[in-house]
Amino acid sequence: MAVSTFKTIPLYILSLILLVFTGYPFLYMVLTSFKTQEMFFKDPFSLFTPVQFSNYVLAFEKGLTRYFANSLYITALSVILIVLFAALASYPLSRIRFRMSKALFMLFVSGMMLPIHSTLIPIFKLTQDAGIYDSLMALLGPYIAFSLPISIFILTQFMSELPREIEEAAEIDGCSHRRIFWNIVLPMITPALSTIVIYNFIHIWTEFIFALVLITSPENMTLPLGMQKYYGELTVNVPALMAALTMASLPILLVYFFAQEKIVKGLTGGAVK
User: Fold this and answer.
1) Among 42, 49, 120, 203, which is most exposed with the fewest C-beta within 10 angstroms?
2) Domains of the chain
3) Contact 81, 207 (CB under 8 A)
4) pLDDT-derived band of residue 230, with 50, 70 and 90 as boundaries?
């Protein structure tokens, strides 16, 4: 017991070092958000300062609520549709044998190699022609389209590893493919669904380039685009900017911790009895 404990000491030390490197920037951001401007310039690296919430009040006065609501709406809607479309596409690609299934799968996966910047002008023209330019709906199509390839790839590979005996038993009992998909396959791929939810939520929540090209009105700006405007307005007020960034980081942390728990549960749950 003592020998095995001694062998784990280097791992604990390495973990502690990684924790410091990854956790310090976030801790610095949060603690700086409670400083006044005078405190920050007097001692910018101090971690022990009196707590005051005026920076958070200023952040909301500058439009953080509007940017936050826009990002939450378009991110949640996009992630829900991505999960639905990716699961519906991955099921036949992985579980049903048909001609050209591999070619169709490679066509989906090839979308990961498409540079986003090469599509900005066509998407800009398309949204103008469709009459949805400068609206949150203009972001929905690109967000879904560029998130589907990686999502389909993950779900297809995960579904391919599921035991087919469960589906065969369900077919013998008279289950259709639709019922097998909704009642058996989906509960069993909870870990993969949690993975694509985390990945796509973070990606869309922090996406900037499409928002910059397709959104111009302040009332329709998402959080990353609003943060750029924020940075211009609060260039010298670093604590206020840190307060806005702290609030913008909270949804990502909540989604990650919630979905992380679902991944662990999904490893042992979901199979039919």
Assistant:
1) 42
2) 58-268 (1.10.3720.10)
3) no
4) low
